[in-house]
Amino acid sequence: MSDYEKLASVVQIVVAILAFISVYLVVRQIKILTSQLKATQLASEAQSIISIVEFLQTTEAREARETVRAKLSELHHDAWDERQNQHASLACANYDVVAALLRVDLIQNKHVIIENWAPSIIHCHRVLSPFIEKKRILAGGDRKYWSNFDWLRDQCPRS
Q1: How many CB atoms sit inside 10 A of residue 113's CB?
Q2: Helical H runs in the chain?
Q3: What pTM, to 2 d.p., does this model score?
Q4: Residue 129 exposure: Cα atoms within 13 Å on the Cβ side
Q5: Which of 27, 54, 67, 71 has a 20 to 30 Å separation from 77 between CA atoms?
Q6: Backbone phi, then psi, for 107, in 5-degree steps?
Q7: Structure letter (DSSP) for residue 78
Q8: For residues 114 and 155, is the Cβ–Cβ distance under 8 A?
Q9: CA-CA distance, 48 to 139, in Å (whole number)?
Q10: Other C-beta atoms within 10 Å of 125: how many?
Q11: Distant-in-sequence, close-in-space partners of 73: CB < 8 Å, separation ≥ 6
Q12: Please, what are the averages of pLDDT over each run of 10 residues along the chain (159 residues)?
């Protein structure tokens, strides 16, 4: 084997080693980027859950749910005054919005919201069902009105 052939072999071996090192570094970089992407997705989902919780915990939303659960559950829906109707409407709208966000599957762990608010969701839906049906059949109403709230109730585990 000539000196040229020996040199060519050494260069090929060095190139092959460098190629393997490059492949190793690329694979390692892909693994790092994948783990960073997963961490970003988890952080985004956590932030989404926190945003929904903050939305449900606003003073107005809590007051509306408290009114529905404590007061409206004791009265026939035809006896509700204007303020009580506003609380009923707000409770329906809030749960409808939350359900719409959960239905689009942006949050993988939607059970965190559903399971923690299930008693309230179920109770509010039961109390507000006649109110919802009335809104749906009124002029300008629609059968799909607050249908996400119906979906949310159906997602709740039954005790």
Answers
A1: 22
A2: 3-56, 59-66, 82-103, 111-137, 147-155
A3: 0.78
A4: 9
A5: 54
A6: -115, 115
A7: G
A8: yes
A9: 36
A10: 21
A11: 123, 127
A12: 88 96 97 96 91 95 97 92 96 96 88 93 97 89 90 89
End-to-end CA distance of the chain: 84
Angle CA(131)–CA(144)–CA(152) in degrees, nearest 5?
75
57 token code pair: 């915990």
For residue 58, what is the DSSP state?
S
Residue 99 structure tokens: 């359900």
Which among 129, 125, 115 has a CA at the least distance from the CA of 53? 115
Looking at residue 71, the DSSP 8-state letter turns out to be I
- In this structure, what token pair is assigned to residue 49? 């859950």
Half-sphere exposure for 11 (CA within 13 Å, toward CB)? 6
Three-state secondary structure call for residue 159: coil
Tokens of 132: 């919802």
